[in-house]
Amino acid sequence: MTTWITRAIARTFWALLLAALLAACSDGSDPAAPASSTVTAQDWRTFAGGPARTFYNTRETDITRDNVDQLEVLWTFPTGAIITASPTVANIELPEGRRDIIYIQSWDGFMYAIYRDSGKELWRFETRFQEVSFPNTGSAHVENVNGVDTVFFGAGERFYALNAATGAEIWTFDAGTGCRNPGDCGFRRERNQIESSPIIADGKVFFGMDIDDKERVDDPDPALAIEGGKGGFYALDAETGYLAWFFDLESGQTCYPNPGDNITRYDGYHSAATLGLPANWFETRRGCDHPRNPNGCGNVWSSAAVDFGRGRLFFASSNCDTEPEDVSFKPGPVMPPHDEAITALNFDGSVAWVWRPREIDNDDLSFGGVPNLFQISVASLPNEESITVDVVGVGNKDGTYYVMDRDGVNQRYTKNIVDHTSPDFPYWQTKVVEGGSFSGIISTAAVDQDLGRVYFSNPYQRLSDPQRPNVHALDIHTGEVLWQRDLPLGSFAPTSAIPGVVLTGSVIAKIYAFDALTGEQLYASDNIGTTSVASGVVVHKGLVLVGGGIGARHPVTGEFPDTSTQNSWIPNNVTALCVPGTASCPLPADETVD
């Protein structure tokens, strides 16, 4: 592997993607949420299992601490490239009756619907090809809209809504110009890409958009010029796909179309003409006169967690390089207010609060993982009584996991909103490794509310100098490190958990399981037919489900693509494992289904 791989991977995993619910509902469900938004024993309908994004399945009983070491491959489903998305599972009405179906996209350009029990294909849908570094990374969200189970996901800059039973397209939305003309989009032109995994609340689909972190370059030679770009955060009408609002991270403004505008393509930096809008559209719509700086940063490759009780969502953003002197197109010297930050938005797109750990950062110490929602106990001042507070937590590439109040306060010190520069804003922050642009906490953590722990992993900074330890368990109330372990080369994958067991994929193509209480390694898989594991492991009704592969795509500048680009095209599998003898595992240990 080369440093290209580490750099590319480090930017990808988000934790892609990724609640707001009472974290006490540790399976991710929320008593205040609509019935269609809650997780049932049959469903894992969104990234990390639910709107709280805890990646914890409290209802799993077939796989336990005592038998996880017996996992065997039940079936594999082949695709034509790598799979970095996490599986989504929904119980869908089909002509033969209700069936559990897995939805997952591969970098071969297809969204697949797979029968969970057999690994056989139900349907596949081909997405539009676009030259970007991370084209098909996000996980799917399945929601019942007007009686139709619908699959929502992004690929390149296009966002799709498909019929979950048939794969038929319902609507699409372009987070950009739509790449309508040859040469509009590419590694040096429009690079808008949706790496974020969507979630639905208040009748809206929420997701972020990234622009591949390349600054604008003017050059008379078109081969050397780079367009520049700016990310943003979107809300679409779940039924129609029309833009409900767009949040511009550079300014903190929210753009609201007028009723009847029916906007199906939009971003924060192209002109009205390029987006197919009337010439005066930006000036005549509320909040839409935000800056259209093609180097405005605002990259979002994280996904949102949703708190239905508060009517609020939480997402994290990537870094923004600044320039102290006016010698480039970079902003500066202080980053725009919502870059490299945790932002809390209300469902209507208005800002509730924002916080970030630093004001200037040219070291790419960004947020990529999806925020977790849970509860902690803290002692408040001045009487030191213990209180329970709803919090949001997320890791950063600086190697630190941060925890703060969902209401934008710190009840240890004040009942007032704390300015985003205040060091008293987080309840706790724990630094576990040195961190860096290719390391630190990149992916989404798992939260076990019952045991009171948060689990996550980190990758290497350099192959020659891996940051260790790289698997961590912290106390959710205090941030105290409870145990740490080492994996060869670490992990870019999200971490997941079930009662008693913590699971994560690794760079060396294995799945590892650890004792949740002690950190003892319980299991390391044999060859499961993948080149690496960056997909988040999902445990669903006795099956361990995961995608395989790792990589990123870059322009070909020599005779051959670089190693990372070549890796991205290696065929990889969706794999299902189970424990022989359990109700969900009908095959003996020495028999598998291909």
Notable traits:
594 residues, mainly beta, Methanol Dehydrogenase, Chain A, five-stranded antiparallel β-sheet, four-stranded antiparallel β-sheet, 3 helices, 33 strands, disordered N terminus
Overall outline: globular
What are the low-pLDDT stretches, counting only 5+ consecutive residues below 50? Answer: 1-40
- Helix-strand category: mainly beta
CATH topology: Methanol Dehydrogenase, Chain A
Percentage of residues in strands: 25-35%
Q: Give the termini separation.
A: 29 Å
Largest sheet: 5 strands, antiparallel
Number of helices: 3
Number of separate strands: 33
Helicity, as a percent range: under 10%
**What is the mean predicted local confidence, pLDDT?**
87
Strand arrangement, largest sheet?
A: 10-11-12-13-14
Radius of gyration: 22 Å
The domain count comes to 1
Can you say what the CATH homologous superfamily is? Answer: Quinoprotein alcohol dehydrogenase-like superfamily
The CATH top-level class label: Mainly Beta
CATH architectural arrangement: 8 Propeller
